Amino acid sequence: MGKETVHLIVNPVAGHGKAPEVVASHVIPILDHFSIPYKQHITTAPRDAGHIGQSISKHHHAASSESGDKITVIIAGGDGTTHDFIEGVLDLTGKGQGQWEIVILPLGTANALYSSLFPPSAPSPTYNSLKSLSHPPPDDILPKLYSLFAYLDKSSSPLSLPITLTSLLPPEATPANQETDPCSSTIVVPSHVVLSTSLHASILQISETLRSAHPGPERFRLAAQQSASKFFDAKAKLFPTMTTIDGSGGGEVEQWDLRKGKFVKPFTTTTLHTEKDGGHILDGPFAYFLSTSTVDRLEPTFVISPPTSLHPDTSTDIHAQSKQRWIYLTVLRPLRDPAVSSSSPEERGEIWSKRAFEVLGQAYQQGSHINLTYSTNATATEVKGEGEVVVELFRCGSFEWIPLDNQQRQEGEGDGSRLVCADGALHLIPSGGRAKVDLRDPTEGGWSFAIWA
Ligand SMILES: Nc1ncnc2c1ncn2[C@@H]1O[C@H](COP(=O)(O)OP(=O)(O)OP(=O)(O)O)[C@@H](O)[C@H]1O
């Protein structure tokens, strides 16, 4: 039997535009060395990675009698290119099939998924396939090829990649709105890295409006300065996990207890007594609200969700894992800050803005923001002090985000709590509606995604 053909999907505009050169000079010679047949596809427009994926799938299944065969794609670009690919090949009807194994070449800007799998501080992995090369890649390129060498070695299985599906739901039909809104339909948005609202989504939105004046990364800093004082009026409902990887039942909503160093029953939420679904409710306003199931960081050193890991068997305290799949939520609610709640409404935004920069800045210190508590004198924060936790870190099976500010906004104000960001792409929740966020485990559908790492 011949070797499988791998497909290279190359985004020429990702990051600094280096992907085509790195692939030609370093990746293709390695594939040639191991006599691995390949086809190269260059993206020509946004979302093209998805169209390329659809075409690969069509040809593969037409040529193969075993339509369930896995297909390996090497994606050279950033998280956005992988997002485009997944969105394109995902078939939510349940009829489609596709077992995709992905090799990532991190040639984008942030490369959140890759840097979570291969953190810059971790010791360099060793690979037999690397040792067999007569000309090893140069030192600046080698750290970008670990996923490729993991694929070539095949010494373990690729890691399955859960996909988050966010339904943007219109308002529930009531006798009053039934006639006015008969055509509203639900949009479902997949994401594999991050689904966020509030500050994170707002920064991405505002930074786009600054792109022409500030083409460099400083537009993110400027956007953060404009957004950090904002409060986002919404309510969140967190639900337990329903399924486990081994099918052995569901779990509870849990919250990180920094003093115990483990997840425990939620202690800053209000339990929903009226519903039998075990849900927990979080009242706003919110400043930061970010969910992920796959990454602990959004950039190589910005570790926003330290307990999140794709590896099934990490057994240090913080990673203590059951076989459940979780959505991890990192939440900041400004009115929990005594310095904010004791100030006048006019002063609150400015006071909170400083706190937001202080807390999120700690994420760059190996994710130590999750150890902060409010001090009793209310002006400063402490590390693992006696006061309330600053960052609320939850894990759950699914959640709903219900925007409560539906007013029309002025230009430049952003879209408030109706804005959601899925792997960098922005979407708007219909006015009066909500976002329902679920995790689809790869084993559930006719399709699956796995990452070589
Ligand atoms: N040929 C193309 N021309 C213009 N845009 C493209 C092209 N091919 C892909 N794109 C778009 O480029 C965008 C940026 O790609 P990507 O997100 O992978 O890189 P990045 O933003 O530099 O990295 P990261 O997402 O890791 O920060 C994607 O949204 C994708 O849709």
From TrEMBL:
GO terms for cellular component: cytoplasm; membrane. SUPFAM superfamilies: NAD kinase/diacylglycerol kinase-like. PROSITE patterns: DAGK. It comes from the Eukaryota. This is Uncharacterized protein. InterPro entries: ATP-NAD_kinase_N, Diacylglycerol_kinase_cat_dom, Lipid_Phosphate_FormReg, NAD/diacylglycerol_kinase_sf. It holds the Pfam family DAGK_cat. One of its GO terms (biological process) is sphingosine biosynthetic process. Coiled coil: none annotated. GO terms for molecular function: lipid kinase activity.
